[in-house]
Amino acid sequence: MVDIHITLTEEQQALKKAVADLCQLYPGSYWRELDAKREYPEAFVQELSKAGYLAALIPEAYGGSGLGILEGGLILEEINRSGGNAAACHAQMYIMGTLLRHGSDEQKARYLPQIASGALRLQAFGVTEPNSGSDTTQLQTTAVRQGDAYVVNGQKIFISRVMQSDLMLLLARTTPLSEVRKRTDGLSVFLIDIRDLPGFEARPLQTMLNHSTNVLFFDGVEIPADSLVGVEGKGFSHILDGMNAERVLVASQSVGDGRWFVEKGSQYAKERVVFGKPIGANQGVQFPIAKAHMAVEAADLMRLKAAAMFDAGEPCGPEANMAKYLSAEAAWEAANACLDCHGGYGFASEYDVERKFRETRLYKTAPVNNNLVLAYVGQHVLGMPRSY
Ligand SMILES: Cc1cc2nc3c(=O)[nH]c(=O)nc-3n(C[C@H](O)[C@H](O)[C@H](O)COP(=O)(O)OP(=O)(O)OC[C@H]3O[C@@H](n4cnc5c(N)ncnc54)[C@H](O)[C@@H]3O)c2cc1C
């Protein structure tokens, strides 16, 4: 059984502080302006890459810092806690596990040093489709082997940061569903270069938050056969391997969001005077913020447990899923307490509350919706019948 440390080491605290210092250079006004124009935080992402933070999970041998999922999570947490949005750059960490565990030596040597240096960006992850949604095994995009290439046809939706990436990790079906024993078989994962790719089109999809999201079209797109990651037909399990990492990282972002809302809300409640006293003196204002604070701190403990187990190489599906669920719910509770205590000002863009409110809401729905986390816990942890 792994030791769980709830106190961060000096190095981990220093890492958080360094990320927070960098984030100070990108205040609320920076994010607000980009949000209004729906533009990508290019300068911020470049600076983070230059400082090496986005290569935290890449092994030192490939030019990264070889840190654990906890440290990766602390970086993302700190970005969100400072008022920014790590969604602009989290994918590189989310999907690194699939590439590290299942990529060939040749793929790692070709791509990882360039990703680590920031020369290449791998921020796009193409899974979701209009007709399959959360039921990933039903996805309809096909990749058919023809000589030295696979030919890809299909459509994806909600795929983020495609226009800001050089590379994308793509999940497609290589064996028809009717020809496989298990529906999870026959899917394959590819690492593809999406720059100037004939037959490939990305169309921006406007959403309620600034997330650089797109609909993708693949019309007879030829990708080299050596872009296959791992074993053909085993893509679903290759991606599942990385899911626990993704759950811990997204939990970390939500913990960061939750802390931002609690800090922002409690500060405002101390300062805003109505009816002759600070609004925070009213229990109706104070208690929801106090409750949200407790929920965020409790979620953080589960996040630390899941991260410690992951980094120790122990199975951590239940903990990673619970951390994701609890953190997303806690951040949402904190968001509502913060919005409520700001009254009308919470809706005014210049306070950043409404922007963060929209941003944090995403994590109840994506990358996996919280209902499916409940289904996982009900079925796999508590042994109840499969509900879907
Ligand atoms: C801003 C944004 C960015 C995104 N970026 C990416 C990306 O980069 N790459 C990518 O691949 N995807 C991305 N997604 C997609 C995201 O992962 C999906 O939206 C999410 O997984 C849910 O799928 P869906 O939207 O098809 O919902 P559906 O599967 O249609 O589900 C709709 C709702 O029904 C409920 N539901 C469904 N099935 C069950 C069940 N069995 N039991 C109980 N409730 C159920 C859930 O509450 C769910 O929220 C993004 C989405 C958004 C909004």
Descriptive notes:
It is a single chain. The protein has 388 residues and is α+β, with helices and mostly antiparallel strands. It has three domains: 10-117, Acyl-CoA dehydrogenase/oxidase, N-terminal domain (Butyryl-Coa Dehydrogenase, subunit A, domain 1, Orthogonal Bundle); 122-233, Butyryl-CoA Dehydrogenase, subunit A, domain 2, CATH 2.40.110.10; 237-381, Butyryl-CoA Dehydrogenase, subunit A, domain 3. It has twelve helices and ten strands. The longest helix is centred in the middle third of the chain and has 37 residues, at 235-271. It is globular and about 80 Å long. The two termini are 33 Å apart. The model has no long low-confidence stretch (mean pLDDT 97). The structure holds flavin-adenine dinucleotide. Flavin-adenine dinucleotide is lined by residues 125-128, 133-134, 158-160, 207, 211, 213, 362, 365-369, 371, 375, 388.
